[in-house]
Amino acid sequence: MKIVDDIAIVLAGEAGQGIQSIESMLTSLAKRASYHVFATKEYMSRVRGGCNSTEIRISSTPVSARVDRIDLLVPLTPESIPHLESRITESTVVVGEKGTIGYGRMIDVPFTEIATAIGSAIYSNTVAVGTICALLGMDEQGSAGYVRAFFARKGEEVQERNGKAFLAGYERGKALRSEVEVAIGTDPAVKDEVMLTGAEAVALGSIAAGCDYVCAYPMSPGTTVLQTMAEYSKKFDILVEQVEDEIGVANMTIGAWYAGARAMATTSGGGFALMTEAVSLAGAIETPMVVHIAQRPGPATGLPTRTEQADLNLAVHSGHGDFLRVILAPGDLEEGYELAKTAFDIADHYQSPVFLLTDQYFVDSYYTVPAFRVPDEAPIRYVVKTDKDYKRYALKSQDGLSPRGIPGWGDGIVCADSDEHTEAGYITEDASVRVDMVGKRLAKITAVQEDVIPPRLYGDKDYRVLLVGWGSVKGPVIEAISKLERNDLAFLHFPWVYPLPEGVREYLEAADTIVDIEGNATGQFADLLQLETGIRIDKRVLKFDGYQFSVEELAERISAYL
Fold first, then answer.
1. CATH class belonging to 2-192
2. 19 pLDDT higher than 90
């Protein structure tokens, strides 16, 4: 069998069986060999047992989406086969321990036996990595050296045994080349690229934006950003805090901005549900607030380790009362970096809450991308030194923006209160002042249009069929429409989700057929488009089983509307 240009490798086994180690080694080795890499995972909500899998695509061209097909499957437990049965075809090459797995149509490679001969069954994962690297034709000695370095912190003996395990697996892999031929082209540009997760992209964008305080109550999948920021805090001046609950998280984020920090909270939908009272507080006192919401299926605990796009309505309508809320949703790593920066700038400038919506698929997937551009200058901090006549909520400007001071910098009193307040910030029940303050806050909704990021069109500009979507469906949709090879098809992707950019109606009216694509059960974004534009989108491709769309699935479901 010959596999050309793009191979989809799936590793499957129990939690705690070392799949992450195989994934980490294999993806790093593939990048070092100048292959384009994409990896994503699905895992159960448990520390041990169950059945988890990792998909790794190694390609001659850039890839950033999951596929249904499995070209090479390495099952580590018997349960792996029924778990992935719907994706296994006659073309799938299955490599593993035949006696343990009990699957008839597989190439027998006794990973455990080989590892035990070297010193311990624990090295069987490294044997598997060696076997796969041989099939891919990676450099033998250079790869073995990387594997030894990978285990450097565990001592010389562990290093050497893993090196031997890799080489033993590599020998087995070379023997399989007569049965499986893999021909993937390399790209020298990959060596200068970086390989990042969505969580790392968000964290790096936040750092570039000057984030110096981040807090959270642990909740998957949002915790990955907290963990990543904690790692970066060793190099940058960032205060990272695990708080007792999500209500405390939201209030501490607001307090940090009030004191002059650039702060972010990171959570998931269930945690954000507890933060919405504080969101309203931020709207009332006009304090910036950045919240990263990594979505997962609800309601309640739902599927805590799976993915979904069902928190859009929650974010749009979070907090009671009328005030500006901005929602950004990256579709790829570059947008994750850029939109994280944008979130801080918009929050700071417009003194309003900004929500960065990702999901489990986005934060846990990773691939190779060109290195991000680091800003030449420090971010603008929209704070002023106060004087003795300072009024925090001065009504002078038409855009609703008043000079934002911070306590202790200047002679003025920086007064903030959740009750309706005067220009100076003191409580009032005066009807005319109330009307003025509501108008002031609403003016920001119009003013923010100056900074709105327009939607991005992919595909034919003279489209007849227009697909619309937001967030992490971007990669699968773009690859799916490429697969369909039609010249009347385009995809309109919204990195800035709310308030909707101006001109959206014109995009929709230019299409004969509009198809909404999103990862929830009702089509929340399609409903938002109807609310804002009056255009009803009846054709909806929705997915809410806890998994991201695959390229093949989308191509098939889109075809039904063509």
1. alpha beta
2. no
